[in-house]
Amino acid sequence: AKNNVTSFQRKGSRASGTDSGGSRLVSIAGTRPSVRNGQLLVSTGLPALDQLLGGGIAVGTVLLIEEDKYNIYSPLLFKYFLAEGIISRHSLLVASAKEDPANILQELPAPFLDDNCKKEFDEDACNHKTPEPNIEMKIAWRYQLLPKMEAGPVSSSRFGHYYDVSKRIPQELIEASRWHGFFLPEKLSSSLEVEPCSLAHGYLKLLKFIQSIIYEEGFDGSNPQKKQKNILRIGIQNLGSPLWGDDICCTENCSNSHSLTKFLYVLRGLLRTSLSVCVITVPSHLIQNKAVIARVTNLSDTVVGLESFIGSEKETNPLYKDYHGLIHIRQIPRLNNLTCDVSDVKDLGFKLKRKQFTIE
Amino acid sequence: MLDSLLALGGLVLLRDSVECEGRSLLKALIKKSALCGEQVHILGCEVSEEEFREGYDSDINSRLVYHNLFRDPLNWSKNGKAFPEGPLGALRALCRRTDPGPVTVALDSLSWLLLHLPCTILCQTLHALSHRSSCPDSSSSMERVRVLGLLHEELHGPGPVGALSSLAQVEVTLSGMLSQTSANILYRRPRQRPTHQTQCFSILPDFSLNLQGMSTLESQPHPDPPTTQADPTAHLTFNLRLSEKEKEAKDSLTLPFQFSSEKQQALLCSGPGQATSCIFYEPDAYDDLDHEDPDDDLDI
Questions:
Q1: One-character DSSP codes across B71-138
Q2: A188 touching chain B per CB within 8 A
Q3: I want to staple B159 with a disulfide (CB 3.0 to 4.6 A). Which of A68, A102, A288, A319 is the partner?
Q4: Where are the stretches annotated Disordered (chain A) (predicted)?
């Protein structure tokens, strides 16, 4: 009989004990395992960027965004990341030295609702296509039988949503989410004296804050009886700017040149031991010492650079006339494998349409 | 427009140089905001109070609140007139003011402050100054605090100037010759593209602004050298376009794998009667042709 063919037996589901039930894979909303190396990924909020990074950002890593010169497009990517966190019901930690985190959250883009979106996408597509008769394919007729690729939102996807930058996220979604804000001027106002230490004052406070949130909320597994595992999305804006107390943007030979690099090192340690993802924007065009930029790049896992055409001679170059800037994928991590997933297309441009940020 | 510089809040950076000084523009802007009825606080570091107030008539002078750092910056005289905490204390005192109404703070000059304070502390204090939120008990929106800072760009390297520019909402770079001064204005609005404008102006002896021609440059027009574009579609060995007759011929061509009615007929007709192909096979010595059906062994 068939049952005696093999002595291997499938392990039955464990009755009790693990919090995720039967399967041993952790299933958290808004995440999915990578098809390449099995790492748990979260979406950046921009499905195009997810695709370029190999499916998304791996949990426990840092995505560094090098800001464009006038800081117009990098806050958009930052906001996409946070909005995706709210929609997927992750916890958020927003840190900034320039803007109040509550204000940043107010300006997040609204997600596309499924019924309106298809119309928007279709009319968008029609505007750009030249009127061509629908020629039936004669030679490659098999391809006509294939289903068309969806460029727009798929209603059943729970990983990666589309957002409308011309609209604000509804207030009730923000209120329903768990978020923690770190606004540096508020934290610094208590102490006027700056202790000399190797880590800039603002960075030290931020690290302590992140550590306390991770510990209290149990993202590092310290409270195993918590009901459901969730991801902490950390967003830090303008790291390295003088507003954080770091002078790498001011001088070439700075006194605390290792402040930012130490911060990144400690931050990565915190991230690796907890279920969190971090997106940092850095004004690398202001950093005076090129060695610091190289070190910061090496210390981050994924690095994406934005270069906008405003004010440069590329603005009038006919090659770039449809785009607002270039996006450079500078580094992709090799997590638990030997090769990384670098996309074949090296020259990528982005443009900010009225409702959407697209990468092509 | 130089007029509307004061309409926006935040930090206005006036960059001047040896060729073209900016203090007179600073004084002209101060006069404008004083005439609008705002409070004006001046942190004077580089020139003495008498020299600064020179040229203003008395009612404007009465509206200016002058914080004098020039006389005794290091507080050597200890007679209480100077600022005990130095320039940083003076700036922080300005931040902590709680007077209602729109305020203009003029810093003369930022270069002096940059040389005496670390750049990061100055940036943080400037940010706090220009983004002062209202008192917790009042629910009104943020006050408009305008900070006018004079920066002598030749004194500093690209680092501090870049850091201060990224903080500024408006950046005015002065250039020009003796009579004709032009200001290159860059507006950095928070979430919009920055816009450039160039305006020529002159300052009259009583520090009022005389605006002359203006040109708005959204993007720099480059004088393209007149080169003829090489046409890549010329001199090809193949035909890129089809004429009408060729199109018809193409459409009427039957492709080899298309199952058209003619082919169907040909296949059907070739069934019985026409031996289209035959295979001739000679069995050789090693062939073991067993005509039994191997499936007969099965017990089904």
A1: S-TT--S-SSSS-TTHHHHHHHHHHH----S-EEEEEETHHHHHHHS-HHHHHHHHHHHHTPPPPTT-
A2: yes
A3: A288
A4: 1-24
Distance CA A130, CA A212 (A): 56
Residue A270 lies in a domain: yes
Say what angle helices B119-130 and B158-167 make with each other, to 10 degrees.
Answer: 10
Highest mean pLDDT among A250-259, A292-301, B246-255: A292-301
A270 Cβ partners below 8 Å, 6+ apart? A207, A210, A211, A214, A276
d(CA B141, CA B138): 9
Residue A55 lies in a domain: yes
Average pLDDT of chain A is 74
Domain extent for A303: 45-113+159-359
* Chain B interface mutation, best of A238, A243, A260, A317, highest count of B Cβ atoms under 10 Å: A243
- Nearest C-alpha in B relative to A248: B159
Distance CA B189, CA B281 (A): 88
All residues of chain A having their beta carbon less than 8 Å from the beta carbon of residue B92 are 192
Asked whether residue A163 is domain-assigned, the answer is yes
Is pLDDT of B134 > 50? no
8 Å CB contact of A138 and B160: no
What is the arithmetic mean of pLDDT over B241-250? Answer: 78
Compute the average pLDDT of residues A308-322.
Answer: 70
- Between A252 and B103, residue with greater pLDDT: B103
pLDDT at site A325: 79
Q: What is the pLDDT of residue B117?
A: 85
C-alpha of B122 from chain center? 22
Q: Which residues of B touch A72 (CB under 8 A)?
A: 191-193
Which residues of A, range 123-142, sit inside 8 Å of B by Cβ? 138-139
Mean pLDDT value of segment A110-122: 57
Could you tell me if residue A13 is inside a domain? no
* Cα of B48 vs its chain's centroid, Å: 37
Interface contact flag, B120 A246, Cβ < 8 Å: yes
% of chain A at pLDDT higher than 90: 5
What are the backbone angles phi and psi of residue B143, rounded to the nearest 5°? -70, 155
Mutation for A interface: B111, B120, B173, most A CBs within 10 A: B120
The CATH number given to whatever domain includes residue A86 is 3.40.50.300
Q: From A188, which residue of chain B is nearest by alpha-carbon distance?
A: B124
Cβ-based neighbour number of residue A37 at 10 Å: 18
Measured from the Cβ of residue A345, the count of other Cβ atoms closer than 10 Å reads: 10
List the single residue in B159, B160, B255 with the smallest CB-CB distance to A138: B255
pTM of the complete model: 0.73
In the structure, what pLDDT confidence band is assigned to residue B258 with cuts at 50, 70 and 90?
Answer: low
Whole-complex ipTM:
0.72
Specify the number of domains making up chain A.
1
